[in-house]
Amino acid sequence: MELRKNYFADVRKDDLHEIGQPRARSDSPGHVTGKTAFFADRNFPGMLHLKMVRSPHHHARIRSIDTSEAEKHPGVVKILTARDVPHNVYTILILIQIGPEDETVLADGKVRWKGEAVVAVLAETERAAQEAAAKVKIDYEVLPAVFDMEEALKPGAPLVNEYHGQNYYLYDSGECRKVRFGDVEAGFAGADYVLEQSYQSSPIEHAPTETTGCVVAPEGNDRFTCYTNTQAMFFTLDNASIILQMPGNKLHFVGGTVGGGFGGKVDVIVEPIAILGAKLTGRPVSFIYSREEEMQISSPRAAEKVVIKDGVMKDGRIVARKVTGYTDAGAYSRHSPYGAQKGAGHYPGPYTIPNVWIDTYCVYTNRTPSSAMRGFGVTIGDFALEVQMDKLARLIGMDPLEFRFINAYRDGDMKAHRQPTEGAALIECMQEASRAANWPVAEKYMTMSSYAKGA
Amino acid sequence: MAIRRGRGVAAINYPTGMNLGGDPTQALVHSTPTGNFMVTLSSVDLGQGMKQIMAQICAETIGVPTDRVVVDTADTDTGPHCMGTFASRGTHRAGNAVIQAAREARQVMLEVAAEELEVNASDLETDGQGNILVKGAPQRSISVFDVALSAHFKRGRSISGRGMFLIPRSYPEKETGAMKPSTCYAHACTVAEVEVDDETGEVTVLTVKNIFEIGRALNPKMVEQQLVGGSWMGISHALYETTEPYYPNRDHGGTDFNQYLMPGPGDLAETEIIVLERPSADGPYGAKGPGEMCANPQIPAVANAVFDAVGVRIDTLPITPERILRALKAQAPN
C-alpha cells in the first residue's frame, strides 16, 4: 500500500503522534497463538445444545406438530414451539420505529421459506439434539410459493407475509422509496441517446470464519449472561428483551473479538431462543450454527434487480437517469427495508445529473430472508451503475475513464436527494488511477479538482 | 479459440455510518492511578482491529503513547451504548465518542498538572511521550504517571471523560426524497485487468489497481489489511459467489467451503492499493469509513474488463464461465 500525500495536502495537517502510525495490533499475538477467547470457548457444566427443526417447504401451512417421539429420545431435556416464546412475532428494526412486526421466532401455523425454524430441541449433546430433531413430526399443507420479485409484485401472486398484506414493504412514501429531482422525462426527450439496461444478482453468503452463535448461562442472581458474536450488543439485547418480555436489566451480553461479521451477525436470531431455553431449563445453553446453517439458513446478501435508464449527450454529459431498484427481502423484513432505502440515497452514484428519478422497492418472496451485508444497499447498485457507465461511454465513443471525469460530482454540486456535495474526491481517485494503471486521459481531466468550481 | 485480455474501470463513493443517521455511540475514558487510560465501550471488534484504533485515537487525544491505553469493550454491564459495528460506522462513530471522552479526561489531567506545577492549565501541553510540559519552558514538566497519582491520592480528582456521538436522524421527504443519507463519503477507483478463455469461459483476474480515498489512514498497516481483503472479496463477488446457483432449485446451494465457490490463493490477482486522504469534516482526525466500500469497485471493473476482453456483457452476477460461454454462443454468427 502506498499513501499519496500530495493529494489534498492543503486541507490536511500531518502533525499527529499516534494517528497515522502503523502500530502493531495489540490483539494479533493472541490471534496467531490461539489465545484469543471467542464466545464458543465458554463451556459450562451441564450445558445443553440447541438444534432447530426446520421447514422443508418454501411455503406451507402447519397442520400439526408432534414432538412426542422426540421428547422420549435419550438426552432430550426440553422442546420449544411457538407457544413457548413470550413475544413470538417480532421485527428487529422496531427499535428504530421501522415496523411492522412480521417474523416469528418459531413458526406459528405457517412457514414462509425453506429452512424456517419451527421447533427448538434442547439436549445434553449436539448429537442427541440433532437426532431428536429428526423425530419431530410436522404435518404440512404445501402452499404455492413465489420466488421471483416481478412475479411477487403481480396481482394474484401468492401472499408471502400476512403481516405486510402485500408483497412489498410499504414506506410512508408508498410502495417504494422515491427520489425526484428535475424533470427526467424532459431529460430523456432532449438526450442524444437513451439507454435502458437491467442488472441482476444472486444471494451471497458472508462466509465468516466463525459461524453465528451464542452461549447463555443463567446466573445466581436471576440474570442471564449471553456470550455472543453479535455485531451489535445493545441492539441484540434490546430485541431479546422484547421477544422474551424480560426486563433488560436481567440480561448481560458479553461479546469480544468476533471471527468476521460482514453484516451477517446483526439479525438477532440465536440469542433470544437460547436465553429462553436457559430460562426454561435453568441450565446453560449453546446454540451455534453449523457451517451449513451459516451458508443456507442465515440471511445472505439480497438478490437484487436494478434497471437503469439514462439519457446521454454526444459530448459525454448524462442529462437524465432513472433507476428502479428491487431488493429481494425473502420472506421477512429483517434489515431489508433499510437496505432498499439506502439504495435510494445512493443513486444516481457519484455523478452530477440534473434530472433524476429513483424508485427502490423492498419485495417479499418465499426465499431465505436476506439482510445486511458489507456494502448493504449499495454494492449491487454500484455494479449496475458502473457497468452502465461503461456501456454509455462506448455508446458515444468516449474513453470510459474520461466519460466519468465529465460527470464526476464536485464540492457544491447538488445531489438528487438535495444535499450539496461536500468533501468529494472521486476526481482525484480517477487521476491517480490514470497514473497507476497507465490509462492516459486528456490533460484537462488531470488538472481538474473536486474543490468547488472557481474556488 | 484464444485467451483474450481486457481491462475495465469503475469509480464509486460510499457513505459512512448508518443511512440517514440516528445511530449513536458512547465512550467512557478514565485513568488508572498510575496514568494508564481505560476506554470503555460496547462496540464490537469484528476482527478488523477496532480496539487498536480506539486505543490510538484515545492516545492521540490525551497525548500519551498508544501502549498506555487499554480498551475494554463489548460488555453491556460496563460499556455505554453503541449502535453496533456495521455500516462502516465503527471508526467514525466510536472514534468521535472516544475523542470527546478523552478531551474531557485530558482537561482534568491538565488541571491537576497545573496545580502541581503552579501554572494555568492553558499554558500546558503534552509531549506525546507521557509528560506534560509548560509551553515555552519544557524544563518545567511533570509526568502523566505523577499527575494520575496526585489526582487519585492527593487532589481527589477523577481523570475521566464521557463521550457521545450522534448524527441526528434524517427523515426522507415522501414525494421528493429530500434527505441527508450521510455526512461523509469515501471514494474509490479501480482498474482491473483480466484474461478470458473464450473456449472455457474462465476468467483470470491478472491485476487489480485500487485507489481509495478514506479521509485519513489512522493506522496505515491496519487499513491496508482491510482494503486488500475487501479487494479480494470484490473479485469473489464478481466471479464466484452465490448461495443459490440454480434458484429456485436449492439442491446445489453450497453448504461448506468445498461447495461454496470462492477464490483460492491462486485465483487472487496482483493487488495494488493506493490511498488518498481528504480529511472529512466530522470524522475522528478526518477518518471516513473504508470498511464496506473497498469491496465494491472491483465487481464492475472486472465485469467491464470481461467485456473489453471478449465483447459480451454479463449483467447478472456472478460472472460464471457458463454465463460467458452462453453469451459468446448467442453472439456468434450462425
Automatic annotation (TrEMBL), chain A:
Tell whether NADP is among the UniProt keywords: no
The record places domain Aldehyde oxidase/xanthine dehydrogenase a/b hammerhead at 33-144
| InterPro entries recorded | Ald_Oxase/Xan_DH_a/b, Ald_Oxase/Xan_DH_a/b_sf, Ald_Oxase/xanthine_DH-like, AldOxase/xan_DH_MoCoBD1, AldOxase/xan_DH_Mopterin-bd_sf
Keyword Repeat (UniProt) = no
Keyword terms: Molybdenum, Oxidoreductase
User: Which PANTHER family does the record associate with it?
Assistant: ALDEHYDE OXIDASE 1-RELATED, XANTHINE DEHYDROGENASE
Name used for this protein in its record: Xanthine dehydrogenase family protein molybdopterin-binding subunit
Organism of origin is: Mesorhizobium qingshengii
Upper lineage: Bacteria, Pseudomonadati, Pseudomonadota, Alphaproteobacteria, Hyphomicrobiales
UniProtKB/TrEMBL annotation, chain B:
Q: Which InterPro entries match?
A: AldOxase/xan_DH_MoCoBD2, AldOxase/xan_DH_Mopterin-bd_sf, N-heterocyclic_Hydroxylase
Instruction: Kindly give the Gene3D superfamilies that the UniProt entry links to this protein.
Output: Aldehyde oxidase/xanthine dehydrogenase, molybdopterin binding domain (3.30.365.10)
- The Aldehyde oxidase/xanthine dehydrogenase second molybdopterin binding domain extends over 3-267
- Protein name per Swiss-Prot or TrEMBL: Molybdopterin-dependent oxidoreductase
